[in-house]
Amino acid sequence: MNSVLVLLLVTVAGYTQTASIKQQPGNGSVGSTVEQCPDTHGWTEKYENTSYGFTITIPEGFQGFWNSAPCTSDAEGCTCMSDHGRIIPLSQKPYEHERHIEVFASHGADLDEPTVAQAIAQHLKWIRKRARRHGLMVRKRLGVTVDGVRGEHVVVRYYDKRMKAWLVEDFIELLKDGSEYSLCLRTPRKNYEHDMQIFDVLVASFTFEKPGEASKKVPND
Q1: Contact predicate 35/21, CB 8 Å
Q2: Deepest of 27, 78, 144, 196, by most Cβ within 10 A of its Cβ?
Q3: Is 89 left (phi over 0), alpha (psi -120 to 50) or beta?
Q4: Which strands form 72-74's sheet, in the order they lie side by side?
Q5: How do residues 6-65 score in pLDDT, each as one tens digit?
Q6: What is the b/e burial string over 171-201, where b = at least 16 CB atoms within 10 angstroms of the residue's CB?
Q7: What CATH number has the domain bearing residue 36?
Q8: Are 53 and 209 in contact (CB under 8 A)?
């Protein structure tokens, strides 16, 4: 995996599961028909997350990459933490470190009774640590409904101290059955108008699914 993507991996607590992943034509993976761990290749088209029960369609022309802790592999297959979602670089290789869309789900273990407001507060706290003093502006904060679940949509512009550049984070926080779902676009300010359109397409594709439900659906003629 590209070194930039490795830096973007998020290590989180979760149950360990053993999975033997084989790429087959049409299953959303990219590459040859060989046995691989899911953190070694990109995914296209429809992606189904059975750990947290949601699906997205990765925008045409882009790939989604594993954004959980790295897997380990041996002769028996792959041992991976829970699958928390995908990260989708929006630039060409070598990928720009802070220009991507990420969909990330977790059980909200850090909060006794998680709420959407608490999830947003944590997200903004993380941004403030990166932002120059007085360099953060909340441009939008309003309610939003995604696949029948009420959440909040926030757009923040800030000056990133490490990048020495103005960035925009456009993110949606949702809460369903005790799990938190974060859909986030992070991009340089100059790219925001363009990248926002790609983000909107992905958000429109987001649906909550019971494990295995999406694969059982029969397409309409």
Answers
A1: yes
A2: 78
A3: beta
A4: 16-19, 77-81, 72-74
A5: 333 333 333 333 333 333 333 444 443 345 789 888 999 999 999 899 999 999 999 999
A6: bbbbbbeebbbbbbbbbbeebbeebeebbee
A7: 3.40.1000.10
A8: yes
- Averaged pLDDT of the chain: 81
Write out 167-194 in H/E/C secondary structure.
EEEEEEEEEECCEEEEEEEEEEHHHHHH
Asked if 47 contacts 58 with a C-beta cutoff of 8 angstroms, the reply is: yes
Q: Does the residue 60 lie in any domain? A: yes
221 within a domain of the structure (yes/no)? no
Which amino acid would we find at residue 74?
A: D
Range 63-77 average pLDDT: 87
- Report the predicted TM-score, pTM, of the whole model to 2 decimal places: 0.78
Q: How many domains does the chain have?
A: 1
Would you give the end-to-end CA distance of the chain in angstroms? Answer: 38
Q: What is the DSSP string of 57-95?
A: EEPTT--BEE-SSPPEEETTEEEEE---EEEEE-SPSSP
How many angstroms separate the most distant Cα atoms in the chain? 56
Q: Taking the mean position of all CA atoms in its chain, how far away is CA 172?
A: 11
Residue-range definition of the domain harbouring residue 30: 3-216
Answer yes or no: is 74 within a domain: yes
**72 is written with which tokens?**
């380990």
Would you call 122 exposed, middle or buried from its count of C-beta atoms within 10 A (0-12, 13-18, 19+)?
middle
Per-residue tokens: 43: 């995914």
